[in-house]
Amino acid sequence: MKRKKALITGITGQDGSYLSELLLSKNYKVLGMMRRSSSFNTSRIDHLYKKFKNNFDTEYGDLMDDSSIHSIISKFKPDEIYNLGAQSHVGISFKTAKSTLTYNTLSTFNILETIRITNKKIRFYQASSSEMFGITKPPQRENSQFLPQSPYGISKVGAYHTTRYFRNAYKLHACNGILFNHESPRRGLNFVTRKITFNIPLILKGEIKKLKMGNLDIKRDWGFAGDYADAIWKIVQYKKADDWVVATGENYSIKEFLDECFGLVGLNWKKFIIQDSKQYLRPSEVPNLKGDASKVKKILKWKPKVKFKSLCKMMLESDLASNGLDFNEAKKLASKLK
Ligand code: NAP
Ligand code: G4F
């Protein structure tokens, strides 16, 4: 059987790294498109260059530069394109509203238009987001209303509709995965879950005394990024291009995430967290996300394996290990802070 080739944008991000590992394990050839940065940004994928040297590589490109997309697609000739590249931070999107709107929406258009011109058989995946639902009440599903509350949310609605437009108008196999929050030890340090697990060891070691945070009453439906990579792949393999909600169906507040993680080392978070710090409050919020993933479960037979408590433990264990600590040693340090 012919070996499949996948092009991944946003390869250097959390999801890019898990998706690459999954596709390589399925014998794909994977090419990642990455942007130039002044310092190296490949720490999440460095292990793949060596291990899969004939099947894994990256190429510099820019999703706002059609000629660079065209050149990569013409040369690599992918069967599938996974568009994960985006300014993905909601809070920062309020500060970089115009570039987030432009980049996240037009980048999707640029890839789809190139597919339309070069090879309409290429299957396309768009990284859509539960942030698009905004203030719509949970549970949110495929046909729930989009009421985005941030430049990021609006940009993702634009990209979602761009994907549907190419599917309907030009019959491209263009899919939207509407993924709810998914986390991992590779999550960026300025997303709320990783901010918490990254800083607990620093609190234990006395390197910081207090951590400033924003609104802790917000609820999110948090899954594990490794599980979500599997859903992304299944969405693209399905015979019919469609839109799919991917979620665990359970949600927790940030206070509950703090309870769980600080509890694992025997600490009470209230002693160490400053709430409602102006720096982290957003001009408008998405208060309550909880997805209904019945469709993806029923048709694609996908279900999340990692639940909330295991996710907290996995992330904290990894950040403790990076500081040379295990849970027992962490608890000993914690007893000195009580
Ligand atoms: P991430 O870790 O922030 O990775 C984003 C990727 O996009 C990185 O490779 C980043 O490159 C690249 N990128 C960002 N801004 C760019 C720009 N202006 N030009 C070129 N490349 C740029 O995000 P993720 O968690 O893996 O998410 C992957 C995709 O899924 C994103 O589109 C995100 O919006 C979407 N999504 C994520 C979640 C979630 O909970 N994780 C949920 C729903 C949807 P650098 O490494 O150089 O920064
Ligand atoms: O972890 P967050 O920054 O993720 P957010 O805004 O939900 O966005 C993530 O999930 C989306 C899917 O719904 C993705 F599309 C998007 O790319 C990204 O991956 O914040 C979660 C919540 C927010 O309500 C925020 O206001 O936590 C609240 N929060 C409270 N204190 C904080 C903090 N968020 C951050 N980042 N830092 C804080 O100190």
SSE layout:
Elements: E1 5-9, H1 14-25, E2 29-34, H2 46-51, E3 56-60, H3 66-76, E4 80-83, H4 90-93, H5 97-118, E5 123-129, H6 151-170, E6 174-179, E7 182-183, H7 192-204, E8 211-212, E9 219-220, E10 223-224, H8 225-237, E11 243-246, E12 252-253, H9 254-264, E13 273-274, H10 294-300, H11 308-322, H12 327-337
Parallel strand pairs: 1-2, 1-4, 2-3, 4-5, 5-6, 6-11, 7-10, 8-13
Antiparallel strand pairs: 9-12
Bound molecules: NADP nicotinamide-adenine-dinucleotide phosphate (NAP) and ligand G4F.
What does this structure look like?
The strands form four sheets. Strands 3-2-1-4-5-6-11 form a seven-stranded parallel β-sheet, sandwiched between helices. The chain is globular and about 65 Å long. The protein has helices at residues 14-25, 46-51, 66-76, 90-93, 97-118, 151-170, 192-204, 225-237, 254-264, 294-300, 308-322, 327-337; strands spanning 5-9, 29-34, 56-60, 80-83, 123-129, 174-179, 182-183, 211-212, 219-220, 223-224, 243-246, 252-253, 273-274. Helix 2 links the parallel strand 2 (29-34) and strand 3 (56-60). It is of the alpha/beta class. The chain has two domains: 5-183 and 221-246, Rossmann fold (3-Layer(aba) Sandwich); 192-220 and 251-287 and 307-335, UDP-galactose 4-epimerase, domain 1, CATH 3.90.25. It binds NADP nicotinamide-adenine-dinucleotide phosphate (NAP) and ligand G4F. Ligand G4F binds at residues 88, 90-91, 129-131, 180-181, 190-192, 195, 213-216, 218, 220, 254, 280, 282, 285, 289.
Question: Would you summarize the structure shown here?
Answer:
The protein is α/β, with parallel strands linked by helices. Helix content is 43%, strand content 14%.
